Amino acid sequence: MTRTHRFVRMIACFGLFVGVSVPAPTAVAGDPAELVPADSIAFVGWSSLMNAKEQAQLGEILKAVRTQAGIKAPEQPIVEELTALVVPVMQAPGCLGLLDLGATEKGPDLQVALVLEAGGQSEDMVRRLDQIIRLAANPEAVSEASVDGVAVHRASFPQAPVEVFWGSHGQRFFATLGEEAARKTIARLNGQGDSLASAAELNFARGKVKAAPGAAKFEVFVDLPAGIAKARQLIEQFNAPVLPVVDAAIQGLGINSMKSFYAHSRDAEEMPVLTAFLHVDGPRVGLLSLWEQQPLSDEDVKVVPRDARWAAVWNLDVPALWKNTVETAMKIDARSVPVIQGGVMMAAGALGFTSLDEMWSIFGDTWAVYDAPDHGGLVITGAVLVAEVKNREALEGVLSRAMATINTFAQGNVTLMQKQTTYGEHTIQYVLIGGVPCPVAPAWGFAGDRWVFGLFPQTVAVAMQQVDAKTRTSSILDHPDFQAARKLSPTSVLSLCYLDTRHLARLLYPLCLFVQTAGVSQLAPGGLALDLQTYPPVLETLEGVHNCVMTASTDDDGIVYVLAGSGKSGATVAAAGGALAALGAVPAHTHGRTSTNCRGLPKQTAGTGGGLKQIGTACIAYAIDNEEQRYPGSLQELLEAGVLTPEARQLLSGRPGAVSYVYIHGQTMGGDPQNVLAYERLKEGEGTHVCFADGRVEWMPYDAFKRALLATYQRLGREDEMPPEFRP
Description:
This protein is α+β, with helices and mostly antiparallel strands and about 725 residues long. Helices cover about 40% and strands about 25% of the residues. A hairpin with a 2-residue loop joins strand 19 (about 550-555) and strand 20. Helix 1 packs parallel to helix 3 (about 75-90). It is globular.
C-alpha cells in the first residue's frame, strides 16, 4: 500500500468518526462572514462543531483510532498528528468559503478557503498540517512561500489542478485550495476589501429569518446566480457549449428566479431551531409551483392523533401542478409533451376516465400520512394515507376497475377478493390476496370527505375514528411538544412534518448499543482500552431531545422552511457504533509488531509511553468538565475524579516497581500546547517520555527534554519551581 493510499484511508476513517458528532455548540461573538470576500459563491460558518460532552466522547474514539492504526509503524506518525489536530479543529469557530470556480488543464480549479479562530493553537495547527502532508505524500511536495508578505506553507501535487496553502495570521489558522484563494483570504484577514458580511443578498436573507450576525451555531449561504454563471463558464472552458435545453430547463424549472439560499441554526429558549430561506424574485414556475398552494387549516391537521410517531400533512393542487408540468416540458422539449400526455391519458382511460380533468377532479388539495401506536403497526406498517376526496363515486369506480384488471393478469391460484367489514359507524373495504402467503391486506374507507387507506383493515379502522370529527379524540395540535415547536414557525404554513424524536431514539438505542459493544469487543484484543460509557445510558441519551416539527411557508420574497426540535437521535449514535465496528473489522496483527517504534527506538524505551497517553487523555476529560478548562491540581485529583481507565489507575497506584511520573500543575487546555504537562522520571540519563499540554506523547532525548522543560516553566512564570537537576 502506497503512502498516498494509506493517507486516503486514514482520512476516510477519520472523517467517519468526526462526522458522527451532531453540532450542538453555543454561539460566539463575531461574524464569520467577515472572514471571506463579498463575492464568495458559497459560505459555511460555525461557532463550534461540537460541545464539551461530544468532545470528551470524540477523545475516546480518537484514542481508539490511534491505538488501532498505530499498530503499523509506517502509518503511526500520520495517525498521531491527525488525532492531535482534529480536536482543536472541531472546537474552533470558523468558516469555509467557495471563492471562485474555474478550470485548468488538469481539471476544475476550485478556490476554497478555510479560516479558524484558533487562538494560541494556530501555529501548532500549521505545524501539524505540514507534518501530515509530508508524511502522507512526499516531503518534497511541501515548501515555504510568501503571499502578499505573509509567510505560508505550500504543497504541490503532480496530478492536482491547484496547490494547497496554509498558515497562521495572528490567532487565526487558514488553509486554501489555490493561490487566488490564499491572496483573497489574506487580504480579508488584513482588513482589505469588502467582506461577505456587507453583501446585500446575505443581509437580506439574514433579515428574513431574523438572524443576528455572529449569533448562529451554523449557517450556510449560496449565491445561486453566481454559482450558475460559474458553472456555465466552467463548461465553456472545457470547450463544451451549453446546450439550449439546459437554458430552457433552468428557465422552465424556475431556477433562474432563485437568487440565494440561506440556512441558519440557533438555540431558542425552548429548543434548537433551523431556519432556511430561498429567495425568489421572478415567475414561480416549475419546481417553485410546488409552493404555490393554499395554507393548511387546523381541521386539516386534526386528522393526526395526539400520540402520532410521525406525520406529514400538506396541500397540493394536483390540476395546477399538472398544468405547470406540461408548460415546463414545452419549454424544455416541446416534442416530449405529446408523449407525456398520451401516456397519462392511456392510464386514465384504463381507469375509466374520459379526460384528464375528470381524473384530476377525484381528489382535493389536502393530504396526510402518519403512524400512531394504536394502529398496531411495526415501524411503518401501521402508516395510513388520508386524502381529501371531491368525487367519492369516481374513486370507488377506479378501485373496482383496478381490482378487475389485476385479477385478469393474475396467474395460478392467485386471486384478489374484495371483502367488507364495519367498525363502529364506518364501513371498511379490504383486499385479501389469496393463493400466496401475503402479509398485508390493503384496506380503505370513507369518513366525510376524507378517504383513508392503509395496509390492514385494523389500522384503517383506528385511523377513521380520528378522521371522523364525531368520534375524534385529541389531535397532534394538543401535544405540548408540537405546540412549543409551532410557536417557532410561521402561523400560516403550506405543509408540516412531525417526528417523535424521543420515540425514534428509544427504538434505535438497542441496535446502537449492540453495534457499539460489538465494535469495542472486536478491538479489545489489539490492546484497546475504550470505556463503554462513552455511549451513555438511554435516559441520558434522551436528555435535551425535543420532538421535531418541520414547516414550509411562502411570502412575496420566497420560501421559508423551519425545523424546530432536535436532530440528535439514536441514528446519530448508531453511526458512531457502526464506525467503531468498522474499525474493529481491520485486522489488528498484534503479534506482527516489530521490535522498534516509528522513531527507531528500542522496544524497552518506546513501550512505556502508554501510561502518559492515558494520563493526558484523562487530564483533557477532567478539564472539559469544569468551566475554567483547567487541568487537575495533581494526579491524585484524577484518581478522585474517576476519569482514568483501570489500567491508568494501576499505573498511578504507587505499587513497587511501577513507573513514576512527574506532573506540572497549574495549566489549562487553553495554554501553550508545547508546555510539558507530565513526564516519566528519567532512566539512565537517555531521555524520557513526555506528555504535552495538548495530550500528545513523545519520546525526547535528555537535552531536548531539558530545553522543553525549561521553556515550560518560563512560560508559566515559575522558573523557581523547576527541579534543580534540570536547571541551567
